[in-house]
Design brief:
single chain, 295 residues, mainly beta, Immunoglobulin-like, elongated
Length: 295
Amino acid sequence: MKSKMLLCFLSLFMAAAGASANERIYVNREVTTHIVMPENIKMVDISTTKIAGNQCTDNIVRIKPSCGSDSIPEAGYRDNELLGTLTLIGERHIAQYDILYTQSPQMAASIFEVPYSHTQSYINPEVTMPMAEMARYAWAVYGSGRKYNQIVSRAHGMKAVVNNIYAVGDYFFIDYSLQNKTKIAYDIEELRVKLTDKKETKATNSQTIELSPVFSLNHVRKFKKSYRNVLVLPKLTFPDEKVLRLEISENQISGRVITLTIEYEDILHADGFDSDILKNAAYYPYYYITYPSQP
């Protein structure tokens, strides 16, 4: 019910804004059409049963004309026949397309990238920062110089350091690096972020809260010498007797584990983000993001 009300509201919003669903996407029964939004998709609506489709990734929807039977040529659809309307609701934008049938497979779109010029913006109270914007901030942090020097950990021939901590809106951007001093490549099995007691006593008295990052810039899992990543966490406060721990473990039975401990004082001294740094950062549309290569 909530989704239907949102769709109805947004459709009325687009109509009031003077937007018409006159942009067209051509489809054919022999071609699967992949539609790529420049931001994460929150909801998809297909107006008729003549179009079959589903959301296959966070920002991609695939569609195809519905075919009653392979024995019916072209599924009975005429050339340029309107099959229905496709509505895509993103984190901050909404787009609508008329889906038309073409009898020529060469004329059908296999990949269709939605430009912002085809969309209308709207305020989504559930999204404080779109993923594309978050990625752009993370890239800017990744390219910035190291400002923190006090958060360092060494274990098993590994060195871990926190380079920077930035506060942007409702999020913390934690920039950290790993250095491998050994000749054995490091395979990252798991990264865990925990809020735990500064002084661990008896297990019955200690309380650990596991946190889930909302974004991680670097998805590389193996490196030989150096590795850098930017994690994004929801902004949080915690008492002075607690610490934030980043625990990186290796993908082996006797794997190496290294931990970075961030004190509450370090969180309090997180830098606000300089707009000039963001201006100088390269812009990567969300669907073109490639992760940093590692030496």
